[in-house]
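In this section we walk through a basic example: taking a raw amino acid sequence and producing a predicted 3D structure, encoded as discrete structure tokens. The instruction is simple. Fold the sequence below.
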Amino acid sequence: MTYRIENADTVYYARIPEVVVRAPRKFKNAAEERQFWRLVYNVKRVYPYAKLSGEKLHELNQNYLALKTEREKKAYAKKVEDELKAEFEGELRKLTITQGRILLRLVDRETGNTTYEILREFRGSIQALFWQAIARVFGSNLKTQYDPSSGEDKTIEQIIRQIEEGTI
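The resulting token sequence is shown next.
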């Protein structure tokens, strides 16, 4: 504890950690509760990948912008892509379609760019259109934006905050 003396009085200061108080979540029925806990499971499964994607994209952007020629940029992007594939492809292929959709939203949350925008920037418009078409065939959308103020994204944001606090 730290202290200081004011007018011959000793005043102690203590640092108290922040405490978040939440009301218990109320569910309308058992199906809604199961759906919520399934969403918690899915978010916990993909959130580390989303965090990592934000870090990797930041690192990639710093190195990418330092390169001068288009040829160097293309070679660097290809090298990074090959490294990421070697490291994560097997794990990401095991994700369910729902987990993939959540991951698309969380990548937007962490990077500030949709997956489509990231693909277009590093792989080109044609590749981005190709992967967007594939995603649409399977009912997903690479242009999905994260909106923490409404819908399922609001619930996802609450879950992420609880994960970060260690309460869930």
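Looking at the output, two observations stand out. The chain is about 65% helix and 5% strand. Residues 54 and 137 are 26 Å apart (CA to CA). In the next section we compare this with other chains.
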